[in-house]
Amino acid sequence: MSRRTQTAVILWIFVMCAGGVAPAAAQVQMPNPKEMSGRPLADGELPIGTVSVRVIRGGFDKDIPNQPVEFTIDGESRVVNTDASGRAEVSGIRSGVSVSAVTVVDGERLESQTFVMGSSGMRMALVATDPEDTARAAEDQALASAPAARGIVVLGPESRVVVELGEDGLTVFYLLQILNTARTPVDIGGPLIFELPQGARGVSILPESSPQGSANGPRLIVTGPFAPGPTTVEAAYELPYRGPTVRLEQVWPATLQVLSLFVEQYGALDIASPQVTGRSLMTGQQGPYISATGPAIQAGQRLTIDFSGLPYRAQWPRWVALTLALGFISWGLWSGWTAPARRRI
């Protein structure tokens, strides 16, 4: 694994974990309730020795009241009906006793994992299949395989710009969530082309990126059509600089719904941008980072970031040394050319 790839992986983990610190820049992806069905969770808000089971159909907005739930507690069965909020509870269970729960909804048997009662209350959900969700999933699958229709995509809220100091310049990572909110594939009329900032070099696609992304000189190109939902494209490039400042300007070919920027903080390094409305200093595995956020940037608009306080080596000693070297070479050539003439005299 190359150093750039290793860095990208670390940065990706870091920025994803940091999403909670910058709420404007992140959306929390809720787990599928069906995947959580029957998994016991300790709950310090419940009385010790209490088990609460919530029975729902599909999602947490569809409670099932008056549903019999059979608890098996240390081998003994106890049936409790759910209340108006879809919850059935038993209490007074001793620590170290094994507990499980089961219910049957419309012929579907829902069972919990068997667990040992600890020193806190326990909570779980039993999730029945929602016929409406099943029908919609089948419809979505059919629509996703339909021919692409003309439409648009946006750069979703999980998109990130991450910048770190490289050996010869700034290393810039684009972690892009290209989002198609339609239920069918969309064709935007051609590829999505990112004209990278002036001076960008060494453009590469990271290993976890969608194969729809490719690099062509100073361009990042993402070909369609775009399937419903997100298409993730991850790319990196180097932005060289020669002094303590440099500017990054990026025109977005699609609307960036939320600006989310992470910059490695080193020494006096700082950033300024008219698009940034909030910022904070964070610490990750790589060290301190500036976390900056801002509102949406519309398609065709420009993101401008000015970097200052960059570490650099002054160029004048190099030029002085080069000038002296050229002077000695010129003197040597002149001496060699004029020596025969002096001997003839």
Considering the chains and any ligands shown, give keywords for the structure.
single chain, alpha+beta, Immunoglobulin-like, 8-stranded mixed β-sheet, elongated, 345 residues, 25 strands, disordered N terminus, 5-stranded antiparallel β-sheet, 40% strand
Secondary-structure blueprint:
Elements lengths: L2 H15 L15 H4 L4 E3 L7 E7 L10 E6 L2 E6 L5 E4 L7 E8 L2 E4 L3 E2 L4 E8 L2 H14 L4 E2 L3 E2 L4 E6 L3 E12 L5 E2 L4 E4 L5 E5 L7 E4 L2 E4 L6 E12 L5 E6 L7 E6 L5 E3 L5 E7 L2 E8 L7 E7 L7 H29 L1
Parallel strand pairs: 2-9, 10-14, 12-21
Antiparallel strand pairs: 1-9, 2-5, 3-4, 3-6, 6-7, 6-8, 11-13, 12-13, 13-19, 15-18, 16-19, 17-18, 20-25, 21-24, 22-25, 23-24
Q: Can you describe what's shown?
A:
This protein is an alpha+beta fold. The chain has four helices and 25 strands. It has two domains: 33-132, Immunoglobulin-like; 157-308, Immunoglobulin-like (Sandwich), CATH 2.60.40. It has helices at 3-17, 33-36, 131-144, 316-344; strands at residues 41-43, 51-57, 68-73, 76-81, 87-90, 98-105, 108-111, 115-116, 121-128, 149-150, 154-155, 160-165, 169-180, 186-187, 192-195, 201-205, 213-216, 219-222, 229-240, 246-251, 259-264, 270-272, 278-284, 287-294, 302-308. The strands form six sheets. Strands 11, 12, 13, 16, 19, 21, 23 and 24 form an eight-stranded mixed beta sheet that branches. The relative contact order is 0.13.
